[in-house]
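note to self: dont lose this again. the chain is below, predicted strucutre after it. 172 aa total, dont forget to put it in the shared folder this time
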Amino acid sequence: MGPDGTAKHTVRIRQVSAWLIFLAMTCWGTMAIVFSNFSADLRCVAVGSLGLLALGSVMLPRRNIRKISCFLSVFALVLTWWLTLSPSNDRDWQPDVATLPSATIRGRTVTVHNIRNCDYRSGSDYVVNHFRSSSDAVASTSAVRQKDGARHFPESFDTDCRAFESRNERLD
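---
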């Protein structure tokens, strides 16, 4: 140890870093399970198990490699499961957002189908309407030259559609 205690500071920085990594891994694993498509009961069991394992890793006496490897194994299992999930639109969506837009490209013309144009009288009283819009893709996009000399194309077209919104599930 140096006269200024740098070895103590280095050890302390490592300990704090390890705690922060452990906390981040625990929080991420918990949130991955909470926001999963598991049933409510299974989510509670899985989150409780992960929480107890994390708590046991911290509370059990002595540092030993078994505690660390057990926690890392479970975290790796949660991470592997999460990475194998594929996105899905198979839900009971509210009628105003149930139909997804799509696009077709023919030559220079881009046609966007099922653009939503609902007539809302209140948050739950509305008439669902959809329309399509076509535009010349080359004429309606503009290339932006950046400092690096590359051209970047913004993801917007000159159509009647001006807003992006979230999709909500049906609340019954």
